[in-house]
Input
Amino acid sequence: MFSSGMAAIHASLVAAGLAPGSKILAAQDLYGPTIGMLRTIFVPVGVEVVLHDLCSPDVIEIVRAEQPDVIYVETLSNPLTKVIDLDAISSTAKEVGAVSIVDSTFTTPYVIKPIDHGFDTVIHSATKYLGGHGDATAGVVISARNNIVEQLHGYATMLGAMLSPFDSYLITRGLKTLALRMERQCKNALEISQFLQKHKAVERVHYPGLPSHPQHDLASRLLMNHRYGGLLAFELKEQTREAAFRFMDKLQLCLPATTLGDVYSEVSYPAISSHRNLTTSERQKFGITDGCIRLSVGIEDVNDILHDLDQALLS
Output
């Protein structure tokens, strides 16, 4: 356990052996601050950082060509919910001798357990779904390798990143209702994505539970019980920041927030939140448009959420 998700990510990268002269192959769709950490902390000390589209059907060839020391991915990308083929990456990582790391914050152990798919290390920002109430900050790293676990214990102390007793209590409290919350959030998210897909003010919906999602079949194979998570993104037909802000200002139930995974529904605008450190051209390359809205679905009655989204979209 760590004092934050970012502390957990930092420690996992160090424990994986990132050092001067080593190479990390990372998904280009990573959480913005994770890319920022790689560029500002690891690149200056001589780590080679290579960003690739690891959702590509050519991912095995990409890994073989790069021959990395560490591979870092997320189960679902932020905010466009692209799905990573965990089995293909973990098996190829073993083939080339790389340590495989996955951030599974969006899916939680309720939806998938990456250790069962061959990954060496799994990260969760417990600030999100594991805590579940927006009142604690924490990070978790789980490893199938004892030597990595031992290093992580040491780094938590040496980096001053250990979890406080009260935050430990809050995360433990949240875990007691994780399954119930995730079941409701996954169910709500599927209904909402189906509603938005038909809405006249919406251009496109990104949710792996929709048959139209380019990796729906992969998601159905990987994710347990056909639960596709509580996070989705959608693009307004009017692709402007003004339209996005107008929509968010009209919301009455869903809360504008940069976090996710709480019991209440939250919307964020990636261009000025999770991906604010990327250039406009980088965001466009990754498919994050000016009309893109991220929605973390809560446990409210789904009809209340639908009503709020509808009235804001039509305003």
User: Anything to note?
Assistant: Residues 178-314 form a domain with the Aspartate Aminotransferase, domain 1 fold (CATH 3.90.1150.10). The chain is about 40% helix and 15% strand. The chain has a mean pLDDT of 94. The first helix runs from residue 5 to 15.
